[in-house]
Amino acid sequence: MNHFAHIASHLASRGLDAMLITSEPGEFYAAGFHGEGVALITPDKSWYYTDSRYIEVANQLVTGAEVAMPQAGQSYRSLVDGLIQAHGIRTLGFEEQYLSVADYQRWSEALDVEWVPASQLITDLRMVKDEEELKAMREAQRVTDAAFAEILNDVKPGVTECEIAARLTYLMACMGAERNSFDPIVACGANGSKPHAVPSQAVIQKGQFVTMDFGCVVGGYCSDMTRTVAVGEPTDEMRLVYDTVLKAQLAGIGVARGGVTGAEVHNAAAKVISEAGYGAYFGHGFGHSLGIEIHENPRFSPAWNRAIPAGAMLSAEPGIYLPGRFGVRIEDVIMLTDEGNIDITKSPKELIIL
Predict the structure, then answer these.
(1) Cα separation of 344 and 89, whole Å?
(2) For 114-126, what is each residue's pLDDT tens digit?
(3) I want to staple 216 with a disulfide (CB 3.0 to 4.6 A). Which of 82, 141, 177, 354 is the partner?
(4) pTM assigned to the model
(5) On the CB side of 320, how many CA atoms lie within 13 Å of its CA?
(6) In Å, what is the CA distance from 342 to each residue of 126, 193, 318, 351?
(7) In this structure, are 309 and 292 located in the same domain?
(8) Quick one: 173 and 80 in the same domain?
(9) Cα–Cα distance, 71 to 209 (Å, whole number)
């Protein structure tokens, strides 16, 4: 899986002679491989450089580019400078969102070109997933769904948040995950009112909600899901809050399709929560894109007023968080189509009482 040709086909429209890729996610998107290296892409040819730790695997896995490594006394900058001189490159796109000031100074001192900020080029291309990317994300979600089904056997009074988080990591690894896509969030009782709670030694007790937000990486691509379950019989208010969050999620998903803005989707969900009297307790966006990184653009956010293209993969994760009491969040990942969307998350969303 690589996107050298896809990136190359968009250089001319951005007024670029070449694109320099230096970030980890950019490298993986371009080469389908992460070897702590760099890539240079022109309309006619691409090059991928990595070091001796990764060169054997890169030669086996990377296609669509000439693969090489620096020799003694060479640096990535000197190799790229040689290509710039040989191919008459004058305007060079770079990933300004990832390149540090210190690294930019080193690169700009080494290369005599016009530096053009071009992170948006790669970001825009990464918004729309192709079939290979979608296949990897579906498999990552399959693993995540399977881990959720299994973890329900472990969520019970007397077990700590940390134990559940560790168990989720273990289950996903056993089921085919390369790694977690982020550190799992496990929050019981009052800790559930913190959207990004860090698992602690808090012990699950009867009558509590337990929120689990977790995901894994398969084929270099992320999954992400959240489920909130009740341990023992919930109160009427707990049921009301849960039902409200579920209705809000379904409302947002119901209007999500290619061509809508993130604000439209977010507002559809927020309206449900506000009308139920909990508007003050939903403080984050309805969702975010994901893929190589767990948080990408575009966003289902009140601030995202650009149309979101079909083929984008985004989370749908409204929540209600009552400080010091409890919280509820439900999250799926959906792919936008011209007609609507496809939900790739298969775990049940109706309230589960353990």
Answers:
(1) 43
(2) 999 999 999 999 9
(3) 177
(4) 0.95
(5) 28
(6) 18, 29, 18, 22
(7) yes
(8) no
(9) 58
